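Q: Here's a chain of 368 amino acids. Please give me its 3D structure as tokens.
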Amino acid sequence: MGIKTRFRNPKKQKSKKSITTIKNLKDKRIIIPQLFRISIVIVLVIILIFSAYTAYAKDQEPKTTEITITKLKYSISSNFDYTAYLKNNTVYSARRTITPRDNLAIFRNIVDHINGSFTYTLSTDKTMTNISGYYNIKAQIQTDIYTKTYTLQTGQINSTTMLLKFPIEYEFYENINKAIEAETDITASNPTLIITCSLSLSAKTSEGDIFKTINPSLNIPLNTKTIEISGTERNSNSGTLTEKQTINHPEVIEERNKWSTFSYIIIVLIIVSIIITKSDVKKPSIEKTVKKILKKYGEWIVEVEKPIKNVPFSEVINCKKINDLMKISEEIGKPIIHVQQEKNIHTFYILDNSIHYQYIIKQNQEGQ
């Protein structure tokens, strides 16, 4: 005879152990009132929603911001000026010159000649080096029909301030305009002499390089009885050197991580509270259960004071629910008999020849 050896299946043993462990954990759960247990879970869920939303809101906030910092401010002041030299005249007696500050009319017939000047000054709060650039002074006769341009001066710039002088040959430009009108046989409207100084200037500083271009101008109408010169007001052109800086916000990341961690902790607390606790559900008393059954199925139930004795039954069938007993009653067409055998025991049964169908309610049993 061979010897039969039985081998145990390790997988089955593990599964049995895990089932046993789960049962033990269920038996060791802390019993607390159902309402209190539900309240704890609801509060934890509300806290979870708040913390998760806060973590999301923090995650949407910018982690960095870009700001513009002014490293250097600078300005270029420029100014046109002129001096009109007069012939001997009766209007201004012994006066020989008129400047913008005199606020006097310059009559065309008493003007001998006019000298113009242009000054500029580059200033900043930093030390400047390698100052360079160029200037170009142009005179332009401008009408509604044509434009005629003359270059008066050009040159290089190597300092933060400079005075440039040039003649304003008013009579010369008037004669040019008249010659063009005679050649074309067209009288142009509003001929104007425009003197422009195009200035381009650059310099180096410890905060960066400055580069600025300006184009101030003088306007002098031609063919008028008085010479009106406009554009002598002082002009100031300012500029800045800026730098963009990125500012990190580690506090935003810290807040996001803090609320995210808090959310995870709340999730763990919810899971743990569900696992280690169970509700202390109070079952209805036996009297309430019986009243409920009688109220629902009273038409099919007959109440008796004492149970029937000395009746031989070949088979006794216990029903798990009152509903099952009701189905049998409807099926076989016999009523359900209810009797209270003892204080805490109620029996509902049906007699069907030798078969006894019954449903028994004892203390702490919930009616169905």
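Q: Can you summarize the key feature?
A: The chain has six helices and 19 strands.
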